[in-house]
Amino acid sequence: MIDTIFFDxxxxxxxxxxxxxxxGYFKGLVGKLAPYGYDPKQIxxxxxxxxxxxxxNDGSRPNKDxxxxxxxxxxxxxxxxxxxxxxxxxxxxxxxxxxxxxxNPLARPLIDTLKRDGLHVxxxxxxxxxxxxxxxxxxxxxxxxxxFELVTTYENMHYCKPNPKYYTEILEMLGKKxxxxxxVGNNTDEDCAAAQAAGMKTILVTDxxxxxxxxxxxxxKNTTFADLYAAIQSCL
Length: 236
Prior knowledge:
Number of domains: 2
Strand order of the largest sheet: 3-2-1-4-5-6
Helix content: 40-55%
InterPro entries: HAD-like_sf, HAD-SF_hydro_IA, HAD_sf, S-2-haloacid_dehalogenase
Structural class: alpha/beta
CATH class of the largest domain: Alpha Beta
Keywords: Hydrolase
Protein name: HAD family hydrolase
GO molecular function, one term: hydrolase activity
Radius of gyration: 18 Å
Strand content: 5-15%
CATH architecture of the largest domain: 3-Layer(aba) Sandwich
Number of strands: 6
Shape: globular
Organism: Anaeromassilibacillus senegalensis
CATH superfamily of the largest domain: HAD superfamily/HAD-like
């Protein structure tokens, strides 16, 4: 019996176009680091390289370590003390990136209702961000990390979507079986195909659909966010 619901964040609980959001918030990150003599293009390229290293992580180290081990050598004259600047950015300036996302007044009521129903909820966002960056994005939709039994971050995870081992790692952390959990997300590959490969049932939320593999959405149980509660109930 399913008693635990995994939620993706970007494009699921938090409406957004990933490209618009990424380009927008990168400007802020570059603006934070450029005054210290770093080339903006190298910073952006370095972030993408670090992100790729996290996506390819084989479980041997936390995603955070995979990122910095790739990013720092790529940036000429990088000062490791400036990691603190990025921490500050995700706690403070990153808040301004809210303008690159949408509103979702239904997110908080849905999470509260599921918990009142006795279900466990997990924020299974791709762990490419530090915890404070995820906390900031949750705040935009009236939620906090304390609303979830687990929030996946680049500090506490060793894999990323679309690797099915990302989901297996969460299951191990929770002590849950795949058949006890349901993954809800907007990405056919990262949220549905990968979670199903780990043995979980899934629901595809179509409001901000990402379908790079051009998979017929009928392949997966799918719904709009407005009808998500009913779709979840039908899986229990």
